Amino acid sequence: MKVNAFDDTFFCYSGIRNNHTKQDLIRTVKGPMSSDLDGLILSTKALTSERMFNCDSSIPPIPFNENIFNSTKKLKVGFFTGSGVCQVLPPMKRVVAECAKHFENLGFEVEEWNPPLLVECANDYFFEVILSESGNTMSSILKKDLVDKSIAKYIKIFHFPDVIKRILPFWSYFVECGFEKTLYKYITGIRSYDQWKNVYKNILVARDEIKKSWIKHNFDIVLFPAFTCPAFDSKLIGKIHGACWPTMYFNLADFPSGVFPYSSLTSQDMNDIQNFQSNQKYLNKLKTICKQAEGFPLSVQIAAMPFKEEKILLAMKNLKNILN
């Protein structure tokens, strides 16, 4: 089943979020999901209605802007599919390129974007914060819980004594690139106030650079892959090292985004995947989990500046109209 999803601006509404680690650099935001776009639009309007602001006066009273959502003004559209070690499989590039072409045919101005500090944000800064307390919070939460077999070996690392965790960064040099390598590298956590200040500064600088670049190009929205590979069997989730970097980048930037199921994996896509060669080992691993994915959905992700959710939904509506 194809699913539309939406991740609003942090603190756009209240009452459905939590923060177990008490850090506020990378913040979790729970958004709606729907089998059709109309349901997504309806829920977003309801969550940002005047009644919701009256229930909680601490959140900014920025209601859903119907004028932006129903606007016929041509948007400035940016797009990217990766940079450096952050790459995606060919079908994910295809859907982004086709969506960009659709917007261009509608008269929108389209420009390829080179997002600043992409590798640093998705591969280093994100994990430094997530593992800042050495995985102890995750360890305590899952201590008496059932853990899926596909990720069990990684969760076990959180339970290791500190002495063993301090050895793992050295072991990371002998591990193939991907999530496992990054996990070993940062599992010791942040062990001093000065180290935390440095991480904090790096992320604030990264956010400033992303916003400066965005404003310089005058983007309204940016298209990018929803994932590095197509949908796959959930039992294989433990093998998708490095596959989440598109989501990590805008999570760290604190930008809202929406996921639109644009297409499905075709037989030609399958051939492109099998013929694809990369010097990134995690991409070659991803090829192996897509062998039976023909017909599975391919989605594009759309981001906008904070509190500009209407532009994302407008872009998703345009794509839906094109497909219909």
Automatic annotation (TrEMBL):
Superkingdom as given in the UniProt entry: Eukaryota
SUPFAM superfamilies: Amidase signature (AS) enzymes
Naturally occurring in which organism (per UniProt): Intoshia linei
Alphabetized Pfam families for the sequence: Amidase
PANTHER family: FATTY ACID AMIDE HYDROLASE
Domain Amidase: 22-313
A GO biological-process term: fatty acid catabolic process
One function term, GO molecular function aspect: fatty acid amide hydrolase activity
InterPro entries in the cross-refs: Amidase_dom (IPR023631), AS_sf (IPR036928), Endocannabinoid_amidase (IPR052096)
Organism phylogeny: Eukaryota, Metazoa, Spiralia, Lophotrochozoa, Mesozoa
Protein name as annotated: Amidase domain-containing protein
